[in-house]
Amino acid sequence: RDDMSVLQASGGLGFSSIEPLLDKPDVTLRELMLDEDFLQECKSNNKRLLDFVTKPENLDTVVSQVTDVVIPPEAAGPAPPETAASGSTADAAAPATPTTGATTNVTTTNVATTTANAASPAAADTPASRVMSALLSCELLCCDCPVVTAALYRQQTLLEKLFRFVTQEEPPAPIVTCYCAKILHAVFPKKIADTVSFLKKTPNAVPCLVRRLELPGVEDLLMRLVSCEELPEGRGILSWLCAMNTLPELVNKLGSGSTDEMKEAAAHALYELVSFARTSAAADALIAALQNDNFASLLIHTLFGSDSASGDAGNDVTLTHGLSPATSLVRSEANAAYEATKGQDELPSFVREVLRCLPAIKARLISTEKGTVAQTSAGSLSPPLGTLRLRLVELVVAAAKTNYKCVLDRIVESDVVLTILDLFFQYFWNTLLHQAVQELILFAFATPHTELKTHILIAGNLMQRILDAEAGNKTDVKTSGFSRGYLGMLTKIGVAVCSFLSATPNVLSDEKYANLNKDWREYADTVLAQRRLIESELLGGQKPTTQKPAVVKEDYQLSFPDDPEDGYDQNFDGDMSFDPSSDFDNRPLFVVQEKPLKFDMSLYSLELADDPGGAGAVEDGW
Known about the structure:
- By secondary structure, the protein is mainly α.
- 53% of the residues lie in helices and 2% in strands.
- A two-stranded antiparallel sheet has the order 1-2. The chain has a two-stranded antiparallel sheet with strand order 3-4.
- The radius of gyration is 35 Å and the shape is elongated.
């Protein structure tokens, strides 16, 4: 029957304690919510219980318990449910925000153990009881119950009350932010058409979301709305978000007037939007907005300042966080084929803006904070490379891999590659830097752009630097016993240099490169060749082949003694060996060779632990 509890419906022996409560004429919502079976009965669609909960006055009480919870700072309530963190740190009394697409529910058992003290009459209005009521209300509204969701959307005032945490002027309490964001994150995809209609009726809904972006859960709520574009009933929500100037609003939050937490949240939201545009098949409106010239100019201007061509750049925090979405946008323009016909004015907007900022990028790569010391596992590092300079290198690499001739010409003219090479050989323990620079150099030797190759090889003095690095590595191995971190990258770069010199032997034909050519040839024939030989060997040895062993005695039989107490026959004169070159499926179990197998029995001499006198020594080695 519709009014059966979950235990009755499943044939359980016991009965839910909710049913006797529902039979009481004066039962209250609080009594039901504090029952240990409350959430489970709601999730199992207990009709009597849901009819009671979804009454307008009761549902309004449920929502108010979330939105109006006030916890004094000196009061410590029970910890709310743990959810997947989005990168922001909330108050100890508030749950972490759920990630996009994820919903975390509190089990009935966990809630029941926490409601022991809150259920007493004396605890009717204590901080602990208020937190528990908010927790239960949050889980009720988040659970997969269509009846509750439909009732919530029938009362638009309740949605407005939940959304008020982003529209009000004063920042809400962290616990209110987390619970309201989690509820909206759960219910919005269930009623996408009604959600869009509600947001369109709410004044400044998108600007309010962006304004509260640093609060836990708000960024995930925004990305939840974006992901609804992939559902049939959610088509058009990206167009509406772009029409509401969501992207420019996010870029503006990277400016100097925002806090560091807001800059980080805005940059991460931009990065997620770019990633969604690159992977989703339903993001045409978002792609068009990202490729807009005005948006590219606004983002680069925010990151590098108004006069970026002169070498000035923006705030370090803005650059550090904002470079991630900028680099991702440039990477989306990467081309496998070399493009030599397009001019700089025909380039994609972001690539064109990055070229304009190359002087500022080079200046930032050179400048360091004096006196800064970083303690690493390899010792003290002063000054450290830092996240900012690493991301600037990644931006240059992404720009180079667009494979436009005019882009590579501009990179060569700016000498930014030489600065990157200086960092590569200076920080020989930074693997992320080594991978980025190796990617750039290997790309340079693979592209038809000859000027970039010779620029790295001659102006960058790459060959001599590799030789000096190998000499320094030998010294480090003798003193510390460890090789430098970039040694594997140098091997791959050295092979690329050898291939380039073999294809174009006249590059270093001048007499002034005679000594360099001699030293490099010696390095390539000895150190590099030996290292390549070692790296080409399989870790487990030789690969199995289909060849069968040359000598196989098919009629050979192993003889065992009649008396098992005498041990194995020590006069066995065959040699059992494993032939790795044989076929695993067809080879015989043993390969018998002509030479006899000998055992050194002295290696197996044993003495019993409880016989210190050695009287029980095992003879004959067994």
